[in-house]
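The freezer alarm interrupted the setup, so I double-checked each line after restarting. Inputs confirmed:
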Amino acid sequence: MRTHENLLSIFALGGINEIGKNMYVLQYSDDIVIIDCGGKFPDESLLGIDLIIPDLTYLEENKEKIRALIVTHGHEDHIGGIPYFLKKLNVPIYSTHFTLGLIELKLEEHRLIRDTKLVTIDSESKLNFGKIHVSFFKVSHSIPDCLGIVFHTPEGNVVHTGDFKFDLTPANHQSPDIHKMAEIGKEGVLVLISESTNAERTGLSPSEQMVGNHMNEAFMKAEGKIFVSTFASNINRVQQVVDAAIKTKRKLSLLGRSMVNVVSVAIERGYLTLPEGMIVEAHEVDKMSPEKVVILCTGSQGEPMAALGRLATGNYRDVSIYPGDTVILAASPIPGNEKDVSRIIDHLFELGANVIYGSGSTTGMHVSGHGYQEDLKLMLTLMKPTYFIPIHGEYRMLYHHRMLAESVGVKKENTFIIKNGDVVDIENSIANQTRNIPAGDTYVDGISVGDVGAIVLRDRKQLSEDGMLVIVLTLSKLERKIISGPDTISRGFMYVRDSDDHLREINTIVKKTVKELNEENIRQWNVMKQKIRKSVGQYVFTHTKRKPMILPIIIEI
Amino acid sequence: MRTHENLLSIFALGGINEIGKNMYVLQYSDDIVIIDCGGKFPDESLLGIDLIIPDLTYLEENKEKIRALIVTHGHEDHIGGIPYFLKKLNVPIYSTHFTLGLIELKLEEHRLIRDTKLVTIDSESKLNFGKIHVSFFKVSHSIPDCLGIVFHTPEGNVVHTGDFKFDLTPANHQSPDIHKMAEIGKEGVLVLISESTNAERTGLSPSEQMVGNHMNEAFMKAEGKIFVSTFASNINRVQQVVDAAIKTKRKLSLLGRSMVNVVSVAIERGYLTLPEGMIVEAHEVDKMSPEKVVILCTGSQGEPMAALGRLATGNYRDVSIYPGDTVILAASPIPGNEKDVSRIIDHLFELGANVIYGSGSTTGMHVSGHGYQEDLKLMLTLMKPTYFIPIHGEYRMLYHHRMLAESVGVKKENTFIIKNGDVVDIENSIANQTRNIPAGDTYVDGISVGDVGAIVLRDRKQLSEDGMLVIVLTLSKLERKIISGPDTISRGFMYVRDSDDHLREINTIVKKTVKELNEENIRQWNVMKQKIRKSVGQYVFTHTKRKPMILPIIIEI
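Predicted 3D structure, all chains:
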């Protein structure tokens, strides 16, 4: 790799061609600043994997150059990888008061809080890391205290938007710093790095105010208990629930661990305003008059073990849903969760609840936190960048975002649609993308990170589809006579009742195979096992059309 | 069970609280008529299951009473279970010319064609099964030749709508028989059984004509090759592709087995009109001028091994997508398939294709085949039923459908929201739901049907998440001394490189456990295995946070 002297480099270690595990890096000479460290939830093909985090190889190899991890906001896809990151790299973390509150919850769980340096900043802070000078601006999003970042470098200014929308009537005064953004643009932006989540959606994203209005209407009409499920971190929405509850003289109860934790952080740190004595414990709810209480609960993504999932199946200890109660789903299903969410809606209707869901403009209880096409164009227009790097999206979103940039005057050849690991190098204010560094998915499975490879996943897949057959056989060392077995044990294959005949037949096949091997004087274990796998596999597939894993175990005595 | 003499009974064996495996049954005295026999695709929790079909217990117990299987149309959720049904019950099948064509494809594959009686009917046919007289009416849907059914019984008339929408400008003259429906309603309908798929969607479903218009516009603009992916069975849409191709002087190529098979059936049977010589073979496509060809392909649901999936990753042998080609996704993702479809769209954009997707009103290339709320209200209004049974939907859809019925005058207490297996009995024109018969999911796995039970699935789940540890140990019969082993073999657990230390430690734990068992003089195998599982399980969970299946195998010699 060439020397980094006076070179400005920008790359992603996660967040490109995916929604999740956001991690972006800016390096000038020998100073590295990291932006965000997110996690991503695995899809169902990654059997048994708990979380995916970015590949940290490059950072580990350059750890003496890392000056800071700056976190734009507290969503999982921006902070979920932090505990695993800190176990390898002890880097100071800079973020806002609320975001650090959420990070602290994570660090406590992983017992990392004592050894980590956390620095509280706000949109007026200025930081210096070598020749990189950093300032900030406020953006609105579906969580409080979100930052956009300006990196002032000798090559020029680089702006990272964080996740944003332009909500001019947000809850809780979380207005975007439009004047400041205009100034930044006027000063000159060499590179704009901007999020692309909703680049396919036309128009301007609707305001959180719409949710507030619909929430008030629904609360006015409701006669029984009201349940509202949303992301705990969407404190602005929680505030609107609180406000609607105050107006209709209802107390508030919180169900679900993350709801209790995050709301506590928000209250402690001053991001949520509610009158004293408003919160009641879960076990008091069923003793109260139903029209006197609203229950905020986790589980808006259809998770069967979260509060709403358990309420829907009547499995929540302290609280029940009765006919006439109202349930509001104030969140949209994340792609992949649609079926789980629908299942819960079905259960709620079966319980006789009045269920309000969907994001229509007449009753919708959810708006996206990510700007639509007109929001993205406004950001591009304000910043007037020379170069543009769309981030935080699948390829089709980056592609549409590039078209938006072109439509407001960014030269087509000045937009870089990169991959994770592709490095955009800037020297003498000219940007090029010619090299790349290691990037990819690191799997977290249990307490170990990165040790689940392709073979383990391939085995899990085979086991998951047709189970396994373990064939145990003891042979005498010299004459290769069968002393014990063969015994075939199956798991995940088929009913024992139905498979008995097959298992007997398999044992016969194994005996025959061993006899043939003896006749051919083949004694290598690998060859013997291979032959057994083949002959048994053929029999099994012919008779059951299944391909279980076949594991021959030969013991010599 | 009480006698069936003069009793009219209606029930579902599938299709309620689900989308899939539709099967409805009408019984009068000792005559049973079955409507549809669908399959359902399993979700990812049913590891290794290929297909789900209805539980046929009741029908097998009453097989001498079954007179007919009438099939309303040829979609998988209405015909997918037929081969498995026929293997147990040899019942004559009545359906339209096109639907029987699709059923024949299935029966050929399962070698059932010779022994099955297939009877071609149309909307003018009249059938008699005991005291049940059957007539039909045409409905429009996203496949040709769809039927609604009228059962004239001594108790009154029962109408089953099949799947339908009111499309007044359909392709291929598949107009609904509105006049006939009005007559049926005028004659009097005791029970209406109507599908509920889109009962949550407001308004009237858009016409297939919209797709035709957008298709023509896109074909006019396209410069390179055009790829269109849709359900093969949506012959009306295929016809619109053919028409747009003729207008723009393009030939047609078909990719994917089901596209070739189903289009052949449609042409042979007269449901698709195209000029001679229009179809070109796949291997000729890349030799043709790109603006002279359109390729119809399977894979609109994101299936990675279907034609579009392989084209998107550059793995289709004969045909490639080049920059400037147009790809039209003329289908919506079925819930659960969104992520797979998105992945393919990303790949197509990366190849430089102009991708047209989504179902907006300006460029949308898909309309639903199922009626929206106004369609459903029109059917209810035409039929004016005394009793109403909403079918073909999840609970929330049935619930909304009941509200629609109420809104047009069906008494609330006269709507039966049933479950699969719930029987609605009608005697002296009074309907009651008090009893039920066996109903549920039967799993097809490989060639066997119904033998995959809860234990097998539970084992597959455990194996899929954390793999397994097989611990083999040979003991002497008398002294219980360890002769060989313990040896621990892992699959799907963790990298061998990382697990070596763990496996050694596990062997030590097993030795220690055997020693303790000997000291306590415990010789029962079950107890020994249980102890080994427990001690090893504790160690593994503490050190890896995983819970692999632990399978101790003890051999006595």
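Quick read of the result. The mean pLDDT of chain A is 92.
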